[in-house]
Sequence to fold (430 residues):
Amino acid sequence: MHSPKAGTTAVMSPAARSPGIACLALICSLLLGAAAAPAGAYSWQQWLNPTTAPFIPIPLIDTDPDSGHTIGLLPTLLQTDPHGDIRLILAPSVYKSSYFGWGLGASIYAYPSQDTQWSADGSAEQRVERQAEVKYQVGRERLQPWSLNAWLMYERIGTPRFFGIGNDTSLRDETNYTSEQEMLQLQPGWNINPYLQLGYLLQAENVTVSPGALKGVPSIERRYGPAYGLGTNAMLLNRLLLTYDTRDDLTMPTRGMALTAYAGLASRQGILNASMYSESGVDTRFFLPLDSHTVLALHTALRYLLEAHRLPFWALSTLGGDNSVIGGEQPLRGFGEGRFSDRDSFSFSGELRRTVASLDAMSTHIDLQLAPFVDVGRVFHRPGTDPVGQLHSVAGLGIRGLARPFVVGYVDIGYGSEGAAVFTGINYPF
Fold:
């Protein structure tokens, strides 16, 4: 066990699209245990032996409700230290997307210490899509007065969907658009003590929404016109966060809680004004050990936009997909990312995370978890609306490979009112 930390979102969270391509291969390598290798030289005999080779060519098979199907090859290297902790993941990839043709990508995840992590990845496909990002986090242990998260990102993606605004939109409302985004996010935190942190988030982004690139899905401007923020919009978000965190670990918590309250102002230009919107919200996460192998994980998020002025649709509160972001998107794992949009949102998720197998592979210890889960939530327009009425619901099963102390690879399969959805990623959804 590690000492309790006051937590913010870990910097190793996956980006929206291309890093997910590496995630399914990562969990395969964790479960197979064949790609974890200590640092050092390799003989030709070790290269020919799958259990001792520095990497193995893992088949890449990925699917997503919005992004289509991807197949390819990803030789993944997991490098460990003498204690068996993973310190470096290298994952180049070659793949073919059912929408945009052949692609090349590469990801690096580095874990120099308990206190510092960083990652860098990028990818490009034959048509439309490009992505590059760098993330850095220092002060994870909260033992020093200050912590910092930093994230620099560029992406151009052609698969996003928009169904209109409201909790009752249907599949008949589906449209597609192309999104191009540049973003810089800085989040320093003052660690009042190991459990309590006052944080400040500064996020500057520029988003261009252009016509869709998918055959068979109507382009956004044909159905919704320019009313919802087509074209280019810039946003500068200032947010204060107060977090009380007693979790025993940031990456793989087994007990404790993380409670965050936040408020923010978003502007089109200038620092402290609400020319786009003002917001407030809470995010709660509880981890209850039921026995030595089972943890009940609970998550609730409530977000209100107190004021909104000619808001582009991409800045609304959203439900859908597999990730929970404090003050941002919330999971509904039977639907694609951003399936439901409106000013305000409520979300609840529960998972029963049970370790069902463990093995020592090379110098790494790996746990396999099964996690049946439920997600419920809704979006709404008026603050007086009952947040727990007319909920959308999803039930499913998560399959997770854990290489302690830093790496969780997952495959989550959810079923909702519009059918099944499959997601892959790194880190727990919450």
